[in-house]
């Protein structure tokens, strides 16, 4: 019996980052508030069949999935004008044949992933190592900062195909991690300082600066 296809629409949008194209799908690709960034095929294999397939394209260097959005980062070998239509059709056809772009029950394994494919060690992408190295502990302001980021920042950066994650707060400095189209974007510094920093300082007097961890 032939497998029934899932009607799916996909359209492509440029992002502020010239290396990243955003593909918007007419159904959720990942549940809840998950925002997942994959930097290699091996990492994608932990929980995302779609991201794993996208890494088969030689020009794909990263994949970010959030809500109804797939953001693809390419290398410099080809221009978007040569590949965007092919990539869009590939994503659409794959989603017509497959219900789940992400295996939700395996998402938690990403926090313990390392580049060797071992899920017993912390990932270099996990901010835990950064927190430990900089002696950052939970503060009384964390919940308020996360709430402000989710309410005012998340919707805007998600529309640009990216994400900004709260890492920690210490001595007036809010540390964040840039993902998807936000990572390496020429306008990310302006967004970070002119937008996010201004917002948090205006809402919380304890905040003096916002810094993106490297």
Task: Write a structural description.
Helix content is 32%, strand content 23%. The protein has 214 residues and is an alpha+beta fold. A hairpin with a 2-residue loop joins strand 4 and strand 5.
List key phrases describing it.
alpha+beta, Ribosomal Protein S8, Chain: A, domain 1, GMP Synthetase, Chain A, domain 3, five-stranded antiparallel beta sheet, three-stranded mixed beta sheet, 8 strands
Biggest beta sheet attributes = 5 strands, antiparallel
State which percent range the strand residues make up: 15-25%
Question: What is the oligomeric state here?
Answer: single chain
The helix-and-strand class reads alpha+beta
Brief digest:
The protein is of the alpha+beta class.
Show the helix and strand layout.
Layout: E1 10-14, E2 20-25, E3 35-38, H1 41-44, H2 49-54, E4 60-66, E5 69-74, H3 80-97, H4 128-133, H5 142-159, E6 162-170, E7 173-180, H6 188-203, E8 209-212
Parallel strand pairs: 7-8
Antiparallel strand pairs: 1-2, 2-5, 3-4, 4-5, 6-7
Helix pairs in contact: 5-6
């Amino acid at each position: 019996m032939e497998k029934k296809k899932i009607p799916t629409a996909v359209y492509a949008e440029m992002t502020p980052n010239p290396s990243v194209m955003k593909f918007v799908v007419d159904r959720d690709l990942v549940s809840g508030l998950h925002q997942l960034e994959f930097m290699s095929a091996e990492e994608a294999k932990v929980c995302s069949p779609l991201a794993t397939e996208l890494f088969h394209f030689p020009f794909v260097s990263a994949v970010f999935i959030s809500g109804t959005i797939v953001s693809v980062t390419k290398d410099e070998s080809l221009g978007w004008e040569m590949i965007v239509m092919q990539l869009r059709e590939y994503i659409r056809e794959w989603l017509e044949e497959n219900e789940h772009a992400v295996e939700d029950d395996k998402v938690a394994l990403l926090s313990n992933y390392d580049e060797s494919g071992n899920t017993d060690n912390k990932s270099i992408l996990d901010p835990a190592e950064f927190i430990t190295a900089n002696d950052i502990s939970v503060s009384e302001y964390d919940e308020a900062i996360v709430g402000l980021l989710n309410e005012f920042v998340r919707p805007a950066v998600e529309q640009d195909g990216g994400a900004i994650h709260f890492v920690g707060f210490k001595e007036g400095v809010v540390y964040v991690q840039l993902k998807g189209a936000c990572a390496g974007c020429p306008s990310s510094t302006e967004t970070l300082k002119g937008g996010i920093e201004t917002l948090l300082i205006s809402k919380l007097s304890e905040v003096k600066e916002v810094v993106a961890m490297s």
